[in-house]
Structure formats: structure tokens, C-alpha cells
């Protein structure tokens, strides 16, 4: 009997030992271990998120800067090439506001119709008064200064066909004068409500017929730069033999004696189309020597912006200056006894 009792006691002891050994093997983390794991996990997650945010911001800035750079390099270069055609085909190389078919269209006289006064299709600048016609220049900008408009004119007398700024072919030897105007307008379907509007730099092309009639192709022009805030123009005039002065079209028209125009300076503020993740960007820019400040708007600093300037020499507007100088007499000496 005692042997049986001892065996039962031994078996219970063995089962109890096995139970506790098994229970110890499947035991989980303690509360302290869980808290430490949670803190470490949060720290690692925060670090990963921080790295992701920094990388995303960097990529966004790089993409925005690339967009602005592409616009400045390719779009501005195209505009420069077109502006260099100004006055092509005109037998008169000097450009001013009175010469017929002058390369820079400032007045109706430049298109052969002195009574034409629709400033919406002429080269105009901020502060200039006059009637702005249908689809004409209105001075839109996103800064505290109105934008300008540049209108050029040329005739394709070359041996090759060319395209105007809207992509329409201009045949070689065409008798029509091509007119192109560069201006700022609202983007298609853009809202007029915000202070900072969605603006583009566009070009509208037309023709001056043999009867000196300006014919516009209609429409709002082709987009040259997809996102701009400002477009400014200065005319380079030769006041004397050695001095070149840059003035606004408005100032030029107010001059009594209008000197020939030989160069054009263009200034733009280009913005990205991709918004930034941070709003810490510039709000003031210098364009052609004048400070332009963005209008107050909640979204004004959400984009990458830079200002660019370009000087275009009008190769078809050469001015020749003839300077008369008094001849100098070369003194000679005769040796003693010479004949």
C-alpha cells in the first residue's frame, strides 16, 4: 500500500514539474519589455518618416527647379530666336515708331496704317494708356507691377520656310508681313478669383496684308512658358555713338526725338508647376533693375520661382555711324643739304 502511495506522489510531483517547465517555455514578454520595444519601434519609425519627408522635399525642389530651368533654357531661347527676326525683309534698317514695317511694332505707322491705335496688339508697357482690344494685352501679372507686351514684325525673305510662334508655316519669299506678340494671359480654364492667378506667357501670330491690314488668326495664342508671374520689356536705343540706353516702350513713345532701336531686353519671373512641400521660398525678385514683389496670397510661396533676363541684339536693325576725323599732317624734316 505504501508503495502505491509513493508512486502516486512521485507521479504528481513529476506532472507538476513538467507543467511548470512547459508554462515557463511559452511565457510572453513582460510589460517592461513591451514598453521598451514600443519606444524603440516608434523611434525607428520616426527616423524613417523623417528621412522620407526630407527625400520627398528634396525631390520636389529638384523637380520644380528642373521645370523652371527647362522653361528658361528652351522657351526663352525660342523667343530669343524669334525676336532676332525682327525687321527682316525691311529695306530700312533703322527701327523706330514711325518707319513702315519696323521690326518693333509700337504704333499703327509701323504696320502701314497711321490711324491704327489698338494698343492691345502693339508693344506696350505698364502705365501706358490706350484702348485694349479684344484678346489684347491687359497687363496681367502676379506682382505689384503690370506686365508688358512685345510685338515684332518681319517678312521671310530667306530661301527656307520658317514657322511663326504658333507653328504656322511662313513660305520662303512670302509677301506677307508676320506679326508676333508676346504677352501674359490667364491659363486655359484658370480662375480669376485668387490674387495670384495661373498665368502663362503666350504668343499670338498674325499677318499684315498687302493693304496694310492687320489680320489676327484668332484665339488666345500658343503657350510659350507654362507658368509665369511677370514679363517685362526694355528697348535698347543708341543715344549717341558710344552709348546704349535701355528704356520702357512707354518712355520711348514719349521722346520727341526717337533714336533707333537696336536691342531688346526681356525679363521674366518663371515659376514651377509642381508645388513645394514647404512654403519657405522667395517673394521678391529683381527684373530688369526693378524689384517685383508677389501679391499677397496664401499660396504664393508654395512654388519655386526664379527671375531671368535676356538681351537680344536685333541683327536686322544695324545702325551705321560715320565719324569724321580731321586728318593729321605728318611732319617731315629735311636733312641739311638735302634737296
UniProtKB/TrEMBL annotation:
Keywords: Membrane, Transmembrane, Transmembrane helix
Pfam families: N_methyl, PilW
Keyword Endoplasmic reticulum: no
UniProt KW Phosphoprotein keyword: no
Coiled coil region boundaries: none
Membrane-spanning parts: 25-54
Domain of life: Bacteria
NCBIfam families reported in the protein's UniProt record: IV_pilin_GFxxxE
Name this protein carries in UniProt: PilW family protein
Organism of origin: Psychrobacter glacincola
High-level lineage: Bacteria, Pseudomonadati, Pseudomonadota, Gammaproteobacteria, Moraxellales
